[in-house]
Amino acid sequence: MEANSIAILCVLLTSTLLNAAYFMPIVYKAFFEKEDEHPHQHHAEHHDIKENPFMAVPLFMTALMTFVLGLCPEPVLYLASMVII
Q1: Percentage of the chain surpassing pLDDT 70?
Q2: By three-state DSSP, how is residue 82 classified?
Q3: What per-residue string of b and e applies to 22-59 under the rule 16 or more CB within 10 Å gives b?
Q4: pTM score, two decimals?
Q5: At 81, is the secondary structure helix, strand, or coil?
Q6: CB-based contact 76:69 (threshold 8 Å)
Q7: Residue 1's Cα: distance from chain center in Å?
Q8: CA 83 to mean position of chain CA atoms
Q9: DSSP per position, 10-79
Q10: Largest alpha-carbon pair distance within the chain?
Q11: How far apart are CA 4 and CA 11, in angstroms?
């Protein structure tokens, strides 16, 4: 707000609202939803569920980018300095 950039403020507020809307069902299920009375039967019914191996690709890419940026942050810092100026 000090830079008088309302567009950036709107983008940040929109991102915050979208993140809150995305994580609200997860928080609700984790903390407010009642537990099953028969947890062993619940697990027996869904025993055949398997994880898709393709889902490891985004996790690997995120870890790789984090590792590379940790070793060589100069390009990102240069871009950030161009935006700030």
Answers
A1: 81
A2: helix
A3: eeeeeeeeeeeeeeeeeeeeeeeeeeeeeeeeeeeeee
A4: 0.40
A5: helix
A6: yes
A7: 26
A8: 24
A9: HHHHHHHHHHHHHHHHHHHHHHTSPPPS-HHHHHHHTTT----GGGHHHHHHHHHHHHHHHH--HHHHHH
A10: 60
A11: 14
Please report, for residues 15, 56, 71, the alpha-carbon distance to residue 68 in angstroms, rounded to integers and kept in the order given.
Answer: 26, 18, 5
Q: Give the tokens for residue 34.
A: 């009642």
Model confidence pLDDT, tens digit, residues 1-21: 677 788 888 999 999 999 999
Please give the structure tokens belonging to residue 52. Answer: 């898709």
Locate tokens 């950039």: which residue?
5
Contact 2, 8 (CB under 8 A): no
Supply 2's token pair: 């000090």
- Pair of tokens at residue 47: 């025993």
Tokens for 25, please give them: 């069902």
